[in-house]
User: Fold this.
Amino acid sequence: MAADFAPHVLRLLLGAVYDTDKTQWRELEQLQVSIGQYLAKIGLKLHLDKDQGLAYVTQPASDEDEYDASQPDLPRLMRRHQLSYELTMLCVALRYHLDRFDQAATDDTRRCFVTRAELRQQLELFARPTTDEAKASKQLDADLKTAERLGFLRTTAPDKTLDPEPRYEICRLVTALISNAKLLEVRDQLRQHLAGPASAELPDEESSEPTFPSL
Assistant:
């Protein structure tokens, strides 16, 4: 017979859970210890962030502090993704936009929205020099789709009477996968790259860009 918390474990394995689902969130809080203990037995870790109102599961890798060396060598359930230069910049922009939203918030509102135009304007601060605007626009659209697939964004219906641009909700998961320290590190790296001599080349993506787990 399945454990009482089995539906919650399976839901977490599909992606992040938010406190906007009040019933599920309340049950997650009540069963947090049991769920965490069960997941630990199979090499996974439960994260429940009450401040951000989200819960998610990760599979610590051998090079991470949370990795349990006493565990047998388990197959990877959750792949780690090497972010491209452009997608890294998008993640930085999302986190920066969300932080500004939280700092300016005057109530308990958690939902933060951003348009494609606003993101493109922010990304211009770190963009590689280019004269091919069509290619840059196509790259942004591709990165937005990837960010949505990874759980950083959620497409919402735009208010075309105000702005015809696509509108997105920034998911709180981005604050969990990109810590304040990592945000500052990536931002400073990008600034240093772009402030270097005009003839200097950026380090290749494989060696210079951070890796984040996917859910």
Remarks:
- DSSP finds nine helices and eight strands in the chain.
- The longest helix spans residues 85-104.
